[in-house]
Every structure is written in C-alpha cells, then in structure tokens.
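Lecture 7 notes: from sequence to structure.

We start with a single chain of 476 residues. Read the sequence below before looking at the structure.
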Amino acid sequence: MAVVTDSMAGAARHHGSSSPAARLGWLLPALVLALFALKPLGPLKDPDAYWHVVAGEHLTQTGQFVLHDPFGAATEKVWILNQWLPEVLMYWAHAAYGLPGVVWLLCFGTLLVGLAVYAACRRRASALVSALVLAVTFVALSGSLSPRPQLVTFALAAITTSAWLTTREDGRARWWLVPLTWLWACSHGMWFVGPAIGGLVVVGMVLEQRGSVRQAARLAVVPVLSVALAALTPVGPRLFVSPFQVSGVTGLISEWQPPGLADPGLVAAMLLVAVVVVDQVVRGRGEWTVALLAVLALVLAVTWSRTTGLAAVVLAPLAAAAIQRVTRETVSSPPRRERLAVLVSGVVSLVLAAFIAPAAAATPGIGPNGLDAALARLPAGTVVCNDQADGGWLMLQHPGLRPTMDTRVELYTVERIRAYLGFIAAEPGWQTYPQQVGCTYAALPADAAAVPAMRATGNWQLVEQSGGYALLRSRV
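Now the structure, written as tokens:
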C-alpha cells in the first residue's frame, strides 16, 4: 500500500488547481456576460417596446404620469405610467438613433442584468462556479431579455437579494436599499419584490435566532421604509393599485399563464431550485432564510411564465454558494485579470452592438411594414382595427392613427378583449366589434380569419395587400 505524504497531497491539490477548467475559470464569466450583451441584437420584435417608446415621448412632452389614454381608440381605463424612468430612456435612445438605438439600449440593459447576477454569485463562489450559475440563469432569462422595463427588476432583484444575504451574515442594515427601491418603483411594476425579499430574510433571521428581536425590528424598517417611500414617486399612491389593473384579464394573457413543463426557462430555474434544496438536505441543517427564498422562487417559477426568469435571479447566489461548498475551496476576491476580462468583455460587446445594430435593427421586426405608405395616406384620427401585436407599432410608426387593440391589456376590459378575440377569429357576432370601436379601416394579417369574413360581407373593400398584411376600408 502506498503511503501518501503531506507533500504528495499538496502536489495533487496543486495539480488539480491547474486543470484547464481551473486555469480558464477566471475568463468564463466574461464570455457568459458577452452572451447577455449580444443576445438582443436583431430586429425589434417585442410588441411592448414600441408603445414604451411612445409612453416616454408623451411623458417628456406633457409631464402626465396618470392619464386617459390618447392613443388607443378602444381603451377604457386610466393609463398609469408606473414604468416611466426606462420609458424615457427608451424614448431618448429612439429620438437619437431610431430603433437601433433602442436595441443598443437593450443590449446595455441585459449586460447590466448579467453583471448584477454575476456580482451576487461571485461574492459567494469562484469564477468557475459563478459562470456556471450565470449560464443557467441566462437560459432561465432568455425568454424575458426583451426591451421592457422588466430588465430593471431582474438587475435590482439580484442586487437586493445579494445585499440581504450579506445582511444575514453580518447583521448590518443596508439603508441604501431604500432609495434603490424608490428608483425601482419608478421603473417597473414588480418593485415590491425587493421589500418582499427583505421581509423574508428578516423573518428567516428571527427563526434562525440570528441576533436579537430588537435587531430584527431595526432591520425590518428597511423594507417598510422602502414601501413607504414608493408612495412618493411621481405616480403617487396610485402606484400601489397599478399592478392590480391587469388582474382581471390575466387569464387572457399568455405570459401570465404557467410555463410549460418543457419550457427551457422553467427547466433552468428548477435546476437552481434543486441545487439549493439538495444542498440543504445533504448538509442536514435546514436554514429558514434559504427555505423561504426557495419557496418564493418556486412560486415565481411555476406560477407565471413572466416570472420564471426572476425566480432564477433570486436563487442564483444561493445556488452558487451551494455548488461552491461541494468544491470545498475558499472563495477569494476576483483577481485583477478576471475584473479586466469582465470589463473588456462588456465594453467590446457594447461597441460591437453599436456597429451591428444599425443594420440588424434598421427595420421593425413586427407590424404591417409593407403597408407603411398606404397607412401614411390615411387622415389623422382614423380608427384602425388591427392585430393586438401591432398596436404599439401603429402608435409609434403612425402616431396620427388610432389602433383599437394593443398589448397594454390593463387598459381594456375583459369584455373588450373577448370581443376582439372573437373578431379576429371571425366567430359568430364578430361584426359588432368594428361597430363598437368605430374603425373605418382595418390593417390585419392576411391569413387572419377576419379578413375573408369582412370581404365576404361586401361592407369591406381590400385597399392593398403587402408583406403578409391586408388593408381594408369600410364601405359603410
């Protein structure tokens, strides 16, 4: 039997640390972050992006944060601009560089999301482990990295989770989370996730007997004060009711449905959940804080498609810490070469995006672009029956026209949305919809069931057909 001496064991450890994975581990986060920055390059396909730009323009011109919608012809509820900060940024980018400017801003936003998740993981794990968890989180987020204010929620959720986990370790209150939550409340409707994470960590600390009750009460002031300060955004107290505007119509919105079991985002998020749960079971010491955050993430992952990526963001630092424990290596601060690699990756990716975006995003990725000239000839104020996905496109590309449906579903009643769906599908009684909304023209996908049904009545005339869309005019 061979005898393993201390020197031989040390040599073995040294040899293991010189494996290709260990030697290149410092470079992997930079490569994954490049994926975050470059993934959005291409034509702007998200229907919401267009009306977000319009919202930013309207706000800069009027200063109205709560208003009756001046754009849609069939909206019935008050429009609350509770995402105004990124919308203004999107408008400025569009005003300066058009759609390529919006796409570049998206590249910048997704890079910030990746950096926030990376920083949260790297504080608790090596570069190699952080890159692995970051890659899984990228898959979970891949369906949500679109030009919407929700990017702010992803980035700030990572920062907030990391900050509260650090508070759990050292017992210090991070008061800067209060103004950070105020900025969050100016940027996206899911800002309340931040105070919720803080509340769960405080409860977990009490159950784990980390510190005194008095200390826990002091820490609880941070999420409470964050909520109170949110009432002082320009939207005012209406901010608290704005998320519930969509509650009545969620059953008709695909992104508010549970994700499919084969959805890659769900699989990635559940993988992180499994890592955290297995770590707790193997260690044989259940931690209340970890359990509470895991339950929150599990609910976010399986309940709505829209929040599956957010679940991964919340769990990423916990999963990184769990995997790091398996390696039994001490976590050190990022070396200079790793920090430099991340910096170079981010700068190069954004410069590359700036060169590619003008060609890749010059034309919209959605909408009846082939009917541009015909739509431009319509009189200002013309009401146009349209496909829901094209409502924002019409608002931005043809501001003089008034679309009858768009993806701001919180502004429509359930009855109006059902009537629209019946119209598009040419279901019995579809004729009442154009009469209700008062449209004299219709710009619809040529393969929509409504198009032949409208022409068959003799009351609608085909004006032009191009690019897979048909423009019809009412004879009545």
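The longest strand covers residues 460-466. Keep this in mind for problem set 3.
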